[in-house]
Amino acid sequence: MKAAAPDIDAAVVGAGIGGLTAARALRRAGREVRIFEAADAVGGRMRSLRRDGWIVDTGAEMIPSTGYPATWSLIRELGLSRTEIPRVPRAVALWRGGRAHPHVGRPLGLLTGAGLSPGARLALVRLLAGGALSREARGAPGESPLSDVTLEAFATRYGAELRDRLLHPLAAGFFGWSPQRSSAAPLLAHLLATGSTGRWRTYRGGMDTLSRRLAAHLDVSTGCAVREVAALPGGVRLTFDHGEVTARCAVLAVPAPVAARLHPGAPSEERDFLRECSFAPMLRASFALDRVPATAGGMRGFATLVADADDDLVNVVTLDHRKHPDRAPRGRGLVSVITAPGATASLIGASDAEITSRLAERAERYLPGLRELIRAAYVHRFPHGLPEATPAALEAHRAFRRRPARPVDYAGDWVALRPCSEGAVASARKAASRVLARTDDGCPPPCDPGRTSYEAA
Predict the structure, then answer these.
(1) Can you list the domains of the chain with their CATH numbers?
(2) Residues within the annotated binding site?
(3) Mean per-residue pLDDT of the chain
(4) What's an example of a GO molecular-function annotation for this chain (predicted)?
(5) Three-state SS at 49
(6) In this model, does residue 147 exceed pLDDT 90?
(7) When you count CB atoms within 10 A of the terminal residue's CB, does the N or C end of the chain come out lower?
């Protein structure tokens, strides 16, 4: 007896930037696509809230001018102009000795110090000149000689100060990583690809600009949680609380631990990687303020990193009204505080009131009088913040990268172990091409690990 025709051509689970990009590619190829999103809005970890004139980014996404070829290609396809993606002035500073030191991640920082002693600056030059970034970290992180070296072990080669005052705060602040768990290779590859923080940009109108633009032309069902995905002869079945949908193929654009739960029947090389691909939780509180706050220690830029030696609770303070003026009404302020990894683990299950109280009190060190200015507070919890890229995950990633095309594929920053939106966009396009090749030809395409998204276009 002939099997019934699938309900749709393609299903995408997750309406973050990865899922929406995959759906766009499938639809442009002529496929009927439906996106199922458990949350009540699109954007995933790149969602923005709009409250009383404030635009509150739930994360801290930046778009480097280099190293994001898939993202910039998508930006051009959607017709966004450069004026809609303005530069972030004075992007990153480092807190040390009671003040903010600018120019972190810029060549100028080697001259001004950027909070580092002359000895630590020489160690940084040695790291850069020694070829670790260009020789050992280029390409797929799982193929790097540094894949089985933790960031802690690698950074220690260049001295305690550079380790504790720069590399650790960078990894913790932007990836939520514990240096003792995560591999050095993905961080170094990301630094190689993106270059100077002086070229960082943001989205005018909120970090969900791309997601909203994509979703406007796609069939998205929000508040629609998928409970299980199973491969069938000739297709895929998606199970919901109250029914099922069948499709010729599906792309799971959700964090790896969620994908593992949804697709328990995944083949072994997929299941092994999904099991090893752990995520670091992240916690962030944003404060809408009645006016622009005072700052301590010459804090004039957007993001200030704080090392564990200076603060065991706060890892990053961002002045979001300086990222772009549209984030707060004229004359008002908007700031966010990101917790240090150790504090995240202990606080993420606390109430919103406790989290905002503790973070606002501690943030007074950097923003005197902050608590008196708070009009509203928003807590952003990400149990699956960013992929940790541990040595064990990188080992399992080798077989995962070489898997044949199947009815169920994956999209997300974790697929390439590149914890940023570029990893999600690049993996989404590859996932779409894999399932299209399979459904077009009736068989998997030849195995081709291909060029990784770390490599500049």
Answers:
(1) 99-194 (1.10.3110)
(2) 37-38, 190, 226
(3) 89
(4) 4,4'-diapophytoene desaturase (4,4'-diaponeurosporene-forming)
(5) strand
(6) no
(7) N
